[in-house]
Design brief:
The structure holds 3 protein chains of 3 kinds. By secondary structure, chain A is an alpha+beta fold. Chain A has a domain of about 110 residues: Alpha-Beta Plaits, CATH 3.30.70. Chain A contains 4 helices and 9 strands. The radius of gyration of chain A is 24 Å and the shape is elongated. Chain C is mainly α. Chain C is about 70% helix and about 0% strand. The chains are: A alpha+beta, B mainly alpha, C mainly alpha. At the A-C interface, helix 1 of A face helix 2 of C.
Chain lengths: ~180, ~425, ~350
């Protein structure tokens, strides 16, 4: 590719022929987003929630959070016990997963949920994946299983809800092909 | 003031017409200095390109024109300045990783790597060999995406939307590869002191090979429709020439420097990561024009493909995190690491206090050399956090190289230098 | 008595329709306004779609998804019509407002003088059609220059100056190209040109390929297709002369190159592609609206459509030239090609080969 000398006519013909080649055999890379959406990989860094029973309230996640999206809340348990639990502001979170990785008890439940629409600013702020309300009524907290499901069952506020899920597959000729997992 | 000075079209002004008529009659010898300056101003056209101009990027380029020839260029940078240095000086060491990534989004791994190398030198930690190879691997994949980004934007600067779309579409498989490793698409935060955060997933080598073969096949089409396109050659050959001595004198860096014939690559001059163990060429071109800079990027993509193949072949087994960090993990985290090959942070990450001292690091990023300078006074936050980004060093392309060229060459030179305003502004 | 009267009325009505309808058809329907509008919608959509296909994407899709987004341009037109029309403070208001209208008028005028069927001869005086078409095509860019001048914007100004330079450098090759065909056909009447091609059985592009190529290049230049999209170069001068325009007036500026493209392509298919060949209407059929205007017109239109499709496809292949390079091509290679085309025509006529 280093050669500079080039036949001009050959250059024009090559350029036009390449254009025609792609016009005849379009290799489309577009993902028609609201109609199709990608099945994200297992290790995708999506929304996460705190497992309340595992969390020990050590505040390491708050300390390490680069955008300061996590702040520790002083909460009172149903039994009157005082606890510290992280509150996550999704408006600030950059999904670096420093908090997930630094947790000494692995108390964060991660998910591959990436598309989530919020209807109000207060919805950003969650404890255990539950929208934060002031004052936070700790006795009404859902248990961990519900939280986890709330991330996977995001139909009402997921813009890609109802879309065809596709899996990107690498291809030698086309780069990326989007395949429907249901298809053989 | 800038808007008024030098704007010569006074079509509605009777006084203006009279004045210019009287000036025509007078000989320049009898004119005072101010009158001469006025005459010059009538010839001059000052164009303010940007910051809201399709061809400016996040900056304002003030151009003084005489006819179609550029007389002077004043790049007004700083529109996307993010105070990364001051931000980082007020945060824990670990928190600077996402910050340095955000200024150079096409090239995040390299920014991350440069900072972490400087930090490791401050801490006295040495990453494991496997981590070194993984750093090289991600860095090279990132370099290809960065060069594709540059080639694509060069396409839209010269008017070829096809190359723009192609390059951005072809970043997708490479970004997907990095997503497989790190779980994110652009801001990976992959490299941490002591190693990297995730190991290669199963079957990664085969998938990477597929993508590399695809890239190689596509480069042939790029050559036909873009690199060897006669119109592209007309637009770029002999335009914006930077001679070898000028390139050194002006402090130009990266592919732009090598396109001027200077055989300098940080990967070879100051080896880091796994580069000393790898066999690769540093392509150079002697012409130093826009076309050489375009070819330089294409050639470097080919070299990066070669490096990735070697890395995938030679990558040693072992831990991806150094013993210093591994030994600080708690038993649960160690178990997690053995199970999932995923590095959990020991609490040490949030309380790193490097001994007082200073360290530097140089990394060859997509656009050139990133230089880091860290000073620690033994505190939890850096005492001084200083970094020089390659785009900032490439600013002479505006102030020196564009002068004397046509107005239409401004985007040609701008695009060929692959100048990225957020990176320069930091 | 009544019978005679009704007969008289019906006869006069028939003849009235016969004499009045074709010109109306010609101006209003084809190749005039309605087809121009449809062509605009289709062509802009086609350009985006063709470019998108080459560029690994879909292009306009979501407006009428079943038909591949074909009415996207209509949606754009509706958007343009509801936008605010802004007049910049420093603009020359009168010129600023009138220029797009004049531009449109002069962009459409050449269509009347390009014959799309033998019946045309009965409607308009076609004897000097080529001589009239040339100045009408060349005069349009003057209003582009006016646009840029009136806008009081430096980018508009630079863009219009570029347009002026390019117009001057390419009008002589255009005239030479058409002149060589006039010499070859021995007539300034385009209908005679077509009958010449049909009579010899050889299209003009084979007779004088140099002139055809030159005409194609000038066509790309005048209609601002790539690689000669110079006066509106986005990364250099924003939108060129149209920078300050908004709303429908911007829409006019945007659609004008396509109208020019249309008239140029019609002219190209008449001059070089054998016009309405293979449909050769008999004298009787040629006097009817269908046989004399619509059927031959359809053939010419399809040929023009193919030419247009090729030219809009160039967007997907080429970047743009620099202004001085384009001017050099105009004054240097294109001019020599023009002389060569004329020389070839003279040689052909002289030698009696055609």
């Amino acid at each position: 590719m280093t050669g500079r000398k080039n036949n001009r006519i050959r250059g024009h013909v090559d350029a036009l022929a390449t254009g025609f080649k792609y016009l005849a055999e379009p290799n489309r890379m577009t993902l028609n987003y609201p109609d199709e959406s990608m099945n994200l990989k297992d290790n995708y860094r999506g929304f996460f929630a705190v497992k309340d029973k595992t969390c020990i309230g050590c505040s390491l996640c708050e300390i390490v959070c680069p955008p300061k999206a996590i702040s520790m809340l002083d909460l009172t348990d149903a039994g009157g016990k005082k606890k510290k639990r992280p509150m996550i502001d999704w408006g600030l979170c950059i999904f670096c997963y420093f908090c997930v990785d630094i947790c000494p008890t692995d108390a964060f439940q991660t998910s591959q949920v990436h598309d989530k629409a919020f209807y109000s600013e207060t919805e950003y702020q969650t404890v255990h994946g539950e929208p934060m309300q002031y004052p936070y009524d700790y006795s009404k907290r859902p248990d961990y299983k519900e939280i986890y499901e709330s991330f996977h069952d995001v139909a009402p506020d997921d813009p890609s809800a109802g879309s065809k899920k596709v899996v990107p597959k690498f291809d030698k000729k086309r780069g990326i092909k989007y395949e429907h997992p249901g298809q053989p | 003031m800038a808007y008024e000075e030098g704007f010569s079209i006074e079509k509605n002004s009777v006084e203006g017409a009279k004045m210019s008529a009287s000036q025509d009659r007078a000989t320049t010898a009898n004119l005072t200095y101010d009158e001469l300056a006025g005459l010059k101003a009538e010839r001059e056209l000052v164009l303010l390109i940007g910051p809201a101009h399709p061809g400016s990027g996040h900056m304002k380029i003030k151009v003084w024109m005489d006819g179609d020839i550029i007389q002077r260029v004043d790049p007004d940078i700083g529109f996307v300045h993010r105070t990364t240095e001051k931000l980082s000086e007020n945060r824990l060491y670990i928190k600077a990783i996402p910050i340095v990534e955000r200024v150079m989004l096409p090239d995040t791994i390299n920014a991350n790597l440069a900072y972490v190398i400087a930090l490791e030198r401050l801490l006295g930690i040495e990453p494991t060999p496997r981590a070194q190879y993984l750093r090289t691997l991600t860095s090279e994949i990132n370099r290809i995406t960065s060069h594709l980004y540059g080639i694509g934007l060069y396409g839209i600067f010269l008017g070829s939307s096809t190359v723009y779309m192609w390059a951005f579409a072809d970043r997708e498989p490479l970004i997907d590869l990095l997503e497989e490793i790190s779980g994110a698409r652009i801001t990976y935060s992959y490299i941490i002191p002591g190693g990297v955060r995730w190991d290669l997933p199963a079957g990664f080598k085969e998938r990477a090979e597929t993508v590399l073969q695809y890239m190689e096949a596509r480069l042939k089409d790029y050559e036909k429709i873009w690199v060897k396109n006669p119109v592209v050659m007309d637009r770029t050959e002999g335009v914006g020439i930077v001679s070898k001595s000028d390139a050194i004198r002006l402090g130009i860096t990266g592919p732009n420097l090598r396109a001027s014939g200077v055989d300098y690559d940080t990967r070879r001059a100051k080896p880091y990561a796994a580069y000393p163990n790898l066999d690769f060429n540093v392509p150079t071109f002697s012409e130093g024009d826009c076309y050489a800079r375009l070819l330089q990027r294409v050639e470097e993509i080919e070299q990066s493909i070669r490096i990735i193949r070697q890395v995938l072949k030679d990558i040693p087994d072992g831990r991806i995190i150094s013993d210093d960090i591994y030994s600080k993990m708690n038993p649960l985290q160690k178990r997690m690491y053995e199970m999932k090959h995923r590095v959990m942070f020991p609490a040490y990450m949030a309380s790193m206090r490097p001994a007082a001292g200073r360290s530097t690091a140089s990394v060859e990023a997509g656009r050139g050399e990133i230089f880091f300078y860290l000073v620690s006074n033994g505190d939890k936050v850096p005492f001084r956090f200083r970094w020089v980004t390659p785009s900032f060093l490439n600013l002479p392309f505006f102030t020196h190289v564009m002068v004397g060229q046509h107005l239409a060459d401004l985007p040609a030179i701008y695009g060929s230098s692959d100048y990225f305003p957020p990176e320069a502004d930091r | 008595m009544i019978q005679i009267l009704s007969l008289l009325v019906s006869v006069s009505l028939l003849s009235f329709i016969e004499y009045i309808l074709p010109p109306i058809l010609y101006i209003i329907v084809f190749p005039g306004l309605i087809v121009v509008l449809l062509m605009l919608f289709f062509m802009i959509w086609l350009e985006r779609k063709v470019a998108a296909k080459t560029q690994l994407r879909f292009g306009p899709l979501y407006v009428s998804k079943r038909f591949g987004g074909v009415i996207q341009t209509v949606a754009d037109l509706i958007r343009f019509s509801f936008q605010e029309f802004i007049i910049p403070a420093g603009a020359d208001v009168f010129a600023y407002i009138q220029a797009p209208g004049l531009l449109m008028a002069f962009g459409l005028l050449p269509l009347i003088f390009i014959p799309v069927g033998p019946y045309y001869a009965n409607i308009f005086p076609a004897n000097y059609s080529l001589l009239i078409v040339i100045p009408l095509i060349i005069i349009t860019p003057i209003y582009v220059i006016l646009l840029g001048w009136a806008s009081d914007n430096k980018f508009s100004f630079v863009g219009s100056i570029r347009e002026a330079f390019l117009v001057i450098s390419y009008e002589i090759p255009l005239i030479l190209s058409i002149l060589s065909m006039i010499l070859l056909y021995g007539s300034v009447n385009a209908i005679n040109g077509v009958s010449f091609q049909i009579g010899r059985g050889i299209p003009g592009i084979v007779l004088n390929p140099i002139a055809a190529f030159l005409f194609l290049v000038v066509m790309i230049r005048t209609t601002g297709r790539f690689p000669f999209e110079i006066s509106e170069a986005e990364s250099e001068v924003v939108m060129g002369p149209y920078t300050e325009y908004s709303a429908l007036f911007f829409g006019i500026g945007m659609s004008l190159p396509y109208i020019e493209l249309y008239s140029f392509s019609l002219l190209f298919s008449v001059l070089f592609l054998g016009g309405w060949w293979p449909i050769v209407p008999s004298a009787a059929a040629a006097s009817g609206v269908v046989g004399g205007l619509l059927l031959p017109g359809l053939v010419v239109f399809i040929k023009a459509l193919i030419v247009m499709a090729f030219l809009v496809f160039l967007r997907a292949v080429y970047p743009r030239y620099r202004i001085d390079q384009a001017i050099t091509v105009g004054w240097d290679q294109a001019l020599y090609l023009g002389f060569a085309a004329v020389a070839l025509s003279i040689a052909l006529v002289w030698s009696g080969l055609v």
